[in-house]
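[Solved] Which block belongs to which protein?

Original post:
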Amino acid sequence: ERGGRNPDLNLVATLDDASLKRQNEATAYIDKVRLRLQAAASGLNSGRPDDPVALRLRISSARVKDISVYNRYLPAQSAWQLLGGEAGLTADLSLTPASADGCVTLRANRLRSRVNDQEIAGQLRVDLKLSGGVPQKMAFDLSGSTVSLDHVRVAGRRREFDQADWRARLDLHKGYAVWTQPTRVTIEAGVTMSDTRPLAAVMANQR
């Protein structure tokens, strides 16, 4: 947008069938990505390669091929493990190295997971709201985010639960996450559920 020794740059890239992965990942687990990325920087200096760049990322559609890839972000001693299932992903983010704003939505219609020796399946929707953070450190304020579960099924040795009308919702009144492996999360949240039968089945199976 402006030349000279310290130019202003405005780059726009549109991709219709892309794959996404983090730099340390050998395989891309997110494909069929349609996105628009805008990067803007002012007064670029070749002697300062870490000059801040403002990013606007819009993902109109994407597929997470196997949601079990996110097990790497759970604590090693976690009793809960993701077994599989595809998920749809959309996002609208505005990022600088020291600020974050926007939203990310993940929808999994056939999520399968395991808690010790029992299997829990259902529909999952995660609406992450970025209310701030420091992307350079992979740290984000998630206050105002929600997690919804529907059509949950519990299959265990002692008790089962399979009722299509069951639902639950987790509202993060305050939330802060550092997206490392494993992820570190601090939250204050409220939980609403239609009834406690799935929890009763889980506890009966765990004894």
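(Second protein starts here: sequence line, then its structure tokens.)
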Amino acid sequence: LFSKTVRVSLYNCTNCHLLPPVGQLPCLKELHIRGMTAVETVGPEFYGKGSLPFRVLEILEFSKMEHWEKWLPFHQDKGSGVFPSLKVLSIEECPKLEGELPKKLNSLSKLEICWCKELVVEVANYEHASELRIDGCKALVHTSAEVDFNLLETLRLSIISEPRLQARGLTKGMGKIKELEISGCEELTSSLKNEDRCFPHLISLVRLVIEGNSALVEDLGKELEGLLQVLAWKLEYLEIKNCGS
């Protein structure tokens, strides 16, 4: 009956403990799930019984899932990945969700994780993304020096409890970043201290916002004196606030 359905929204079904097998919908391109507060696990029932779920899904959004704790991988995955066409993944206000996100999202262009304080985000899994927004998660992990974010244009980082970054691998691919926003994240700055000159690659920067990170502002002041001569004719927006020292 729903074989031609391309967009599904499930909102505020507070008595539903399991998600329906939407992975069986062969033409599904957009899936929005919000306010399913009784759901604790997303797993086999979500993918359905088909061998290749979500083949054409492009947009997947979860929000306000207060009791969601586990996102289980598809048990029949043979290495090709469950979401081969996914372009946008957004997860907001899922405070109990822990573990890791799906890997091998090779088509992903936008990743948005907001207020998932138990979630670990491994950014090296999304090397083809053009926009990353990580806000209020447990850990931001980047350990592969070989991953180069050649397509990354927008990077927003805020209130990350445990940044575990290999700075050289993270910053060397910043040549195309146009928008950079960092809020809080004093620990993020300290994790970059072991590398020399972390920020001179920001030659395409158009918008820069720093909030609540005095150490980062100080580092930028030291490192970007020469680069500012290059940025002066490109930078359109600069905002620095709540950097007390």
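Accepted answer:
You had them paired correctly. Confirming on the second one: The radius of gyration is 19 Å.
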